[in-house]
Amino acid sequence: MEVFRRAILQPGPPESFALQTVQQVIKPQKQTKLVQDENQLLENILRTLLQELVSSAVQSGEQIMQYGQSIDDGETTQGHIPRLLDIVLYLCENEHIEGGMIFQLLEDLTEMSTMRNCKDVFGYIESKQDILGKPELFARGKLVMLRTCNQLLRRLSKANDVVFCGRILMFLAHFFPLSERSAVNIKGVFNTSNETKYEKDPPDGISIDFNFYKTFWSLQEHFCNPPSLTLAPTKWKKFTSGLMVVLNTFEAQPLSDEEGDANSLEEEAANFSIKYLTSSKLMGLELKDPSFRRHILVQCLILFDYLKAPGKSEKDLPSDSMKEEIKSCEERVKKLLEMTPPKGENFLHKIEHILEREKNWVWWKRDGCPPFEKQPAEKKVVQEGAKKRRPRWRMGNKELSQLWKWADQNPNALTDPQRVRTPAITDYWKPLADDMDPAAGIEAEYHHKNNRVYCWKGLRFSARQDLEGFSRFTEFGIEGVVPLELLTPEERSKYQAKPNDKSKRAKKEETKGAAHQVEENQIATAANEIDGEGIRAVLEASVTPTDTDATVATGDMSQGGSPIPDEHQKQSSDTDLGQEAGQMEADAEVDAGMIDGGMDTEVDLDPVG
């Protein structure tokens, strides 16, 4: 212990001597880190030393955080206790000793100090908030720090130590993460022990309506326990009747701008008190106080906001009649807040903004307080020169492996009705058909035909399922591909082909095909003449001008049934090729005669000799 006393008096930063002091006192097995038994021994030494320093400070009559201060060369040196805490904090931060030791010393210090000294101790805690909040220290000491702050709040007066209580609550809000469940009232329990005491019997010589006085302060019983209003209808009726009396009085006695300026809200904020006096003699003055009226009216808005909050169970929800009464009362309260000087309209807007943000807080608690912070994704650094190992998939690649895991029995997954399938052609083109209906009144810029991906997919579907519709694309565009049964009669008539057009188109296609075949036959005939080994096939047939089918049949009989001599069957392969070429020439002459000379009554074909 004497070694630490000497270390406290040493000048310079703690890192220059703190670890050496611990090694000198404990003589640890490891040079830079203590084991469990060694930590316990060091903690007992430090707690005993802290207790002796506090006793010495009390006996000297000095404040404990300033005990041992001295002024050297115009500079004020640190007190003994803050110096000791800095040394321990350095050791905990660098993990030389157990991280929760500093929190244990701070708890002991607050328990041994008076409330006046606790303010100085808490000022030291606030100054070291960033270090105490580091993850390696926070995980070890968050519960001890929470217990320390709660003990301080219990010792403080909520009426006289409002600022100090606020400092503690603000520290806890910054020290703990926002999603810390220990700082959240999950069940929404109200502090029903916060009773407002007021006079029950009228005193002598009172100049105000005592019934109004009792009615006014009885509202606080409902404000401190809002859930009771929905459970008992009689309490709700009593509350609304009392509230109507108060609102009527506020409306009958409006405040002027002079009265609002007479009560300086800025000066009042400096001397803010969480409770108002309930003496009946002060009732007349309090009714003329704008901040007093705002206090009561804001309480009403908070109560109404709680009753309207979503997410409650059915038994906690207000009835329809209650909802109507809440709405009417809320409108009156907001109107009174807007009329209350000074700057009533701005004040009302701020209160509404706060209550709107409160709804997000309520929903967050109802959802189980999910964490707001998201840890950043860790990027794995690949060493240079190291080979990346390719992942091995069960089915060969990632997509097939994921597909295989979609169902336990994959054969059933293929027949699942929920499985994605190619839509029917009528179902796919139905949106475009609706766009084409003039009765629908859809503007052209919103038509599906402007969607290139939609049109491209539709053409693929039509090419597979509706060739007739697909053929109309070249003449009518994408709208012509739509199945006719989906269109209105007027629209259908635009895209239906006429019978005469069909026959002309068919005849034109036949003409083009025959001319193309003649050209091919002429080329084959030229090749046959060069070889000199072709055999000319001559057929005879009589064809009537009106019986086209018979003519074609006769030509087929002439080609397939003409006799071929035996000597020609014994010729070489060159001769066979010549026969085929000659036969193709004969067929071409027959077809050319049918097309060009359609009015001839007879076509002579010489038989093969």
Automatic annotation (TrEMBL):
In terms of PANTHER family, this protein maps to: HPR1 (PTHR13265:SF0), THO COMPLEX SUBUNIT 1 (PTHR13265)
Protein name per UniProt? THO complex subunit 1 isoform X1
- The gene for this chain is LOC110772734
Where is the region Disordered?
492-520, 546-587
Q: Name one GO biological process term.
A: mRNA export from nucleus
Q: Which organism is it from?
A: Prunus avium (Cherry)
InterPro entries found in the cross-reference section: THO_THOC1
What's any one GO cellular component for it?
Answer: THO complex part of transcription export complex
The taxonomic lineage of its organism, from the top, reads: Eukaryota, Viridiplantae, Streptophyta, Embryophyta, Tracheophyta
Highest taxon listed in the record's lineage: Eukaryota
Q: Which Pfam families match?
A: efThoc1 (PF11957)
Q: Where is the composition biased (Basic and acidic residues)?
A: 492-519
